[in-house]
Amino acid sequence: MAGEKIVIPVPTNSPGEWRLTDYETNTLRNVSNKNQKLELGPLSPGYYELRSGEGTNSARISFGVLSRLQAPTPMDSPVSMDVGMAWFFPNRPQMEQVASLCTLAGMNRVRDRLMWEEMEPKRGEFVSSNRYDLSAEVQTAAGLQILQVSHVSASWANPVSKRFPTDLRDIHSFCREMTKRWQGKVVAFEPWNEADITVFGGHTGSEMASLQKAAYLGMKAGNSNIIGCLNVFAIRRAATLKDFDHNEAWPYFDTFNLHHYEKLQNYPSLYTDFRAVSAGKPMWVTECSVHVNWSGDERLKELSEEDARLQSERLTKTYALSIYQGAAAVFYFVLPHYVERTLQYGILRSDLTPRPAYVAAAAVGRLLAGAKPRGRIDLPEGKGQAYCFSAEPDGKKSDVLILWSKDKLEFKLPAKAREAYDHLGRAVNVQAGTVESDSAPKFVVLDAGAVKALIAPPKPAKVLGGKPVPIVLQPLLPESDTVLQKSAYKIAPSQKKTFPLYVYNFGMSKSSGTISATAPEGWRVECKGDVAVAPGERHEVSVEVQPPAELGDAETEVRFNGDFGADGKPLVSIRFVKE
Fold first, then answer.
1. 334 preceded by cis ω (within 30°)?
2. Correct CATH for 79-291+326-334 of 3.30.70.260, 3.40.50.300, 3.10.580.10, 3.20.20.80
3. Which among 100, 167, 320, 389 could disulfide-bond with 371, CB atoms 3.0 to 4.6 Å apart, if both were Cys?
4. Nearest alpha carbon to residue 336 among 67, 77, 99, 134
5. How high does pLDDT run on average in the chain?
6. What Å distances lie between residue 136 and 142, 148, 371, 480, CA to CA?
């Protein structure tokens, strides 16, 4: 922390002389190894490295100096982090170190990771304690609010584990038991991760909606105060979003959850697409970043100096642009060292020393604490934007501008600034009423309400009404029939397709009702409509669908509507496309 005397221990065989360098790799001074210690004294905030030697004989130690937080981070601050505590850190001491790194950086929302079968190895039999309980305990003790996400089915629920359980009572009971077990620790729960891509099942929007309804009812049965999150979208595929939206699942999620790894310039259209189907619920971005490739030594999978700087600058822009588009929580992916193919996602190295992006995350956590978008200012000649947020850096209500530009320019500030920082939290001079803008973001802190004449941020979506009902409908078609790109099932002209429609009762009493179907002209749909189902049970309705001989290439929607009196009117919509 800034102001602390820094002493770094080194191994007995370490070099005798080191160079202290900054983010730009400028040498600040030489440091001698005295009794296996490098004594640096206090340093101002920023990213630093200690270097010794050259080429293959070189050694390097990275470290960051952070500004000490002057006030607790507001509990609703959008600046959050995907940590994956239970998966990446195997023991309590490491978990505690990592939890500390989160709180020092101003984070108070973190995302963990969960494997269903490790908690429930057999249907109805739950383990007494394991790494997930430990990570929940450690993060809660550190004051962190945990979002937990479940990955894949237990093998007993579906042998094809990347696919949803075939019986939705299994996901309902699992969610109920998990939210009950972690009451007071886990505050939010995603019942599935990225179901819309093949690695996690390749499900249709309709399938995602049916699972969401069952899971949400289970989450709330276990803990009525849980934030019941949407089983999160990985990508913005228009067909899947439309299919999901037509299934009217919005009473069954408290937050609309999405991921994105798209280019920064795509954010306006990306958020427009997701916002349109969000039903006005708070948007939580529970994974996001812009890809950076590792290079060099395959054992280290490290970023080049240039790419490490690029990662840190993009991190700040990712947070700023996501919050500006209306995201209520942004979980950057990812804190730990993590590689997929040639991509390096982590902002820490495997030994927990920082990459520059961790220091940048701490600056965002402090300076955008509690941030909400106010608007933007376009920079001259279309060279960039300055985004304005109401926030509470160091506990003081403020306007905070974040700006960057394609080329260097002097930006005349719209009001007197109190202070300014670069993206690593290093102080920047603004005494003359201007700040130099370039490709690396700058923060400018002004009095609350000081910035006028702003271009308004995007408007939130209209909040849709409706209440969850205990009856859930689930058509169950073979995975082989799925046409994922169209979020539909293939069918041949005049082909009769038969499949079960399951009617679940997640209520407390027996429910009776009818099921009816609607389809376009020329389609024949038969289903035996009278249903009575006991609490905790499911009833199978046999459905037969037959399209006309002349079948166009467009997707066709078939809708099943239930009427269960006081238990509500459940529905499910599925789409068919010509084989």
1. yes
2. 3.20.20.80
3. 389
4. 99
5. 97
6. 10, 9, 26, 38
